């Protein structure tokens, strides 16, 4: 067992680490896709050229900010786990390297 992940409601270890990294990768890709495709409507709603009601403007702005915040917070986790895969380490192993022994 490497660590428990509440997102997948399971312990991430040797047998399912690939699926956890793929889950992070697809999540970041999908969030960035939403941000990129929603950027045009976001700019239009921010500059008041979107001729819809206020609720539609609020939804566009809220969805863009939520997707951007999740992408910014999950991308470092993905990059950290990609670093762990490339260096052939596990999460608990990297934490053990940084402990101070007296």
Structure description:
By secondary structure, the protein is mainly alpha-helical. It is built from three helices and two strands; from the N terminus they run ββααα. The chain has a two-stranded antiparallel sheet with strand order 1-2. β1 (3-5) and β2 (10-12) form a beta hairpin. It is elongated. The two termini are 27 Å apart.
Taken from the alpha-carbon principal axes, the silhouette is elongated
Major β-sheet annotation: 2 strands, antiparallel
Radius of gyration: 19 Å
Relative helix content: 55-70%
Strand content: 5-15%
Structural class: mainly alpha
Number of helices: 3
Please tally the β strands and state the result.
2
| Arrangement of strands in the largest sheet | 1-2
Mean pLDDT: 82
Order of helices and strands: EEHHH
Oligomerization state: single chain
Q: Which regions are unreliable across 5 or more consecutive residues at pLDDT < 50?
A: none
Cα separation of the termini = 27 Å
């Amino acid at each position: 067992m490497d660590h428990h992940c509440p997102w997948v409601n399971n312990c991430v270890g040797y047998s399912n680490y690939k699926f956890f990294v793929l889950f992070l990768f697809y999540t970041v890709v999908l969030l960035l896709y939403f941000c990129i495709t929603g950027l045009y409507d976001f700019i239009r709603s921010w500059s008041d050229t979107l001729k819809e009601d206020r609720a539609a403007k609020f939804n566009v702005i809220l969805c863009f900010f939520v997707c951007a915040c999740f992408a910014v917070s999950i991308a470092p986790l993905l990059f950290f786990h990609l670093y762990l895969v490339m260096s052939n380490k596990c999460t608990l192993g990297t934490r053990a390297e940084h402990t101070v022994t007296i």
